[in-house]
Amino acid sequence: MSNSAIIIITHGSRRNTFVEDMVNLARYIEEKLEVPVFLSHNEYTEPNWRNIVSELLSKGINHIVFALAFLGRGNHVAKDIMGSFGVSEFYKWVKSTYEGKEINVYFTKPLADSNLVKLALFYRVSTAFPQQENEYIEDPEEIEERTMKFIREKVRERFPYMGDREIEIIARAVYASGNLDLADKIYISQDAVDIGIESLKTGISILTDVKMVSAGIRWNKVENYLDKASELAKEMRITRTAAGIRLGLSSPKIVVIGNAPTAVAEVLKIRKEGVEIPLVIATPPGFTNAVEVKEDLIRSGIPCIVLRGTYGGSSIAVSIINELIRMVRSYGG
């Protein structure tokens, strides 16, 4: 409203630093609300709020918000200020008169009951009582090394019969998820690791269901056709992720699916059509289709690494394929 203004009222102080602090506060509110803001005081310091009100009324401004920059509801608030207008309620526009002129006034509450003020005061007081802090490891390589060592030991306790490479793949999935119980949900078909490594050695392309998976894979031949899949998806009445998988599997590729159960279902359809798929890594989460389609993949005979159940996520799929890539590059399989 063009006939509106905000008056901040403080108790007042003769100290210049007090006024400087309050001027900054007034400027902040004015910039945020784009409404004229006037700093005033109840005593000791000029300008006095009474003079500001008189001046604004003379200019035709008759809607005034009084921002009470007091901590509590003392006599200055109730009697000196609000009492001058015959007002006793906060956060409500009230018609009043002042110096014989009609005025609409709106009063904010003092600050002490604000949770933000309480929190600010708590933070400042708490600096006098520093909490004992643990010593944290900051080197990212050391963090990863220690964490992986711990996870490997726990996984091996659960699966003492399992080979080192399978243990490493499960450990990487656990590391990516932060959930040790996930170790019991990882299924690795017979020869899946060997087939994955041998396929990668040939320089095979990796096909993904979503771009988030593509972005995390450390391989120079990663394909995703989601952006080109709309037309095929409409034509076949399937999801875009499923259509993207169909577009990509015109030739054998490792398939990595971290998000879309429908992409796994499409892989199964394409395999029945005679397309060779050397390895599928499937970790899509979900409560509809995800559980069933992942079990169908396990039963299909396609070499696969699967996170069973409703668990899943793109980061887990990425961690598994990157571990296979690491094996190829670091140890030659």
Automatic annotation (TrEMBL):
GO molecular function, one term: metal ion binding
Listed EC numbers: 5.4.99.61
CDD domains per the UniProt record, alphabetical: CbiX_CbiC
Alphabetized UniProt keyword annotations: Cobalamin biosynthesis, Isomerase, Lyase, Metal-binding
The organism's place on the tree of life at top rank: Archaea
Regions annotated as coiled coil: none
Entry protein name: Precorrin-8X methylmutase
The species this protein was found in: Sulfurisphaera tokodaii (strain DSM 16993 / JCM 10545 / NBRC 100140 / 7) (Sulfolobus tokodaii)
